[in-house]
Amino acid sequence: xxxxxxxxxxxxxxxxxxxxxxxxxxxxxxxxxxxxxxxxxxxxxxxxxxxxxxxxxxxxxxxxxxxxxxxxxxxxxxxxxxxxxxxxxxxxxxxxxxxxxxxxxxxxxxxxxxxxxxxxxxxxxxxxxxxxxxxxxxxxxxxxxxxxxxxxxxxxxxxxxxxxxxxxxxxxxxxxxxxxxxxxxxxxxxxxxxxxxxxxxxxxxxxxxxxxxxxxxxxxxx
Length: 222
Prior knowledge:
This protein is mostly helical. Helices cover about 50% and strands about 5% of the residues.
């Protein structure tokens, strides 16, 4: 595998493409960029995957594992926001053809309870495996492959649970959720765009599953 390099250059030397035209996470500004005809000194380049990191706990974490934790954390926040917005809406909205507010419907009560507990469980599990990895990094100076695998699985699980939570709240809100004035439509778009990130995609679980089953494989990217 070619050694990926992280290069640092003045903004004026970088060409940015205004092509981040997406349905969600619109404010991240994740457009493409290019370095054309410039020289980057070696002192401003870092071997992203092969350079020896500083001997500190944070840098014992795998690069992609840290990235996955960040993506999953954002998605957990979106799930939490969806429950909050639905709770506010449910107290005020009386669905068409009903006499009681949305909050009084048994399906609303069941789904909000289920979403709350499953999101909380996913968050707790992510924190648990992260804390275990941090403890290893502090006391051992390294994080074993098994622990890295657990980090990646927990991140994917948190991401998928967040999507399910948002989908449940979006559906409960009914037609209200399709309007641009509704926070739920933005949360829905954001969480589904985030779910497409490669660090929380299905291939991560395939790799983790191979490792759990004792099969040979390239586990360096865990």
